[in-house]
Amino acid sequence: MSDLVARTGRHQQRYQDGFRLIAGCIPFKYRDWDDGTDDEPKKIVEVLMINSQSGPGLLFPKGGWENDETVQQAAVREAIEEAGVRGDLMKFLGDYCFKSRSHQDEFSPEGWCKAAMYALLVKEELCSWPEQSTRERQWITIPEALEQCRHKWMEDSLKAFSKWHANKVFGVEEDDDPISVASSTR
User: Fold this and answer.
1) What Pfam families does this protein's entry cite (predicted)?
2) What are the tens digits of pLDDT across the range 40-71?
3) 65-122 pLDDT, tens digit each
């Protein structure tokens, strides 16, 4: 059993202008793929998605951004808690607004959320993680992930990831250094 524990409760949850602030990531890795056309295998990108606890479809790890952490720390924490992966945040993908039916409270009565999403290059897959009894993880290609996304906003963040990754592969992206998790700005 893991000595990591998932945070619970809302006492440290951040809110801004009626939105519950969320942090999440699109975990990704590279897999060798031999297409049979030459001697060297090609690298394909796969993203990690997890099952939803409240219905069909797949999700990216995400959750509440709390007062005692930066948004980057929250994104990394959620990847560990929900998907059991560690890695480097590589790119801020944008803020995505959505309405949650399950997270309505006095500070966001209509359930509005704003999710800061990041690309996370996975360096380690944990054998044991806090939500492993309720979460299954699946490595899939970007086209498969687009078909599996449970929510439109996650599909939009995946499209931003795909565009960033394509630019990175073709040398358009200049800054390829990991984002400091300790920093307080995006």
Assistant:
1) NUDIX
2) 767 889 999 999 877 778 999 999 999 999 99
3) 999 999 999 999 999 999 999 999 999 999 999 988 666 555 555 678 999 999 999 9
Name 76's Cβ contacts closer than 8 Å, sequence gap at least 6: 25, 86, 89, 120, 181
- In terms of CATH architecture, what is 15-169? Alpha-Beta Complex (3.90)
Q: Fill in the amino acid letter for 116.
A: A
Tokens at residue 153, please?
Answer: 């906003």
Neighbours of 171 (CB within 10 A): 7
Mean pLDDT of 5-33: 82
Question: What are the CA-CA distances from residue 114 to residues 55, 91, 156, 179 (Å)?
Answer: 21, 17, 13, 20
Candidates 166, 181, 171; CA nearest to 28 is: 166
The Cα–Cα gap between 139 and 150 comes to 16
| pLDDT score recorded for residue 107 | 56
If one counts every other C-beta atom within 10 angstroms of the C-beta of residue 122, the result is 20
Q: Report pLDDT digits (tens) over 22-37.
A: 999 999 999 887 666 6
C-alpha 57/C-alpha 147 separation (Å) is: 9
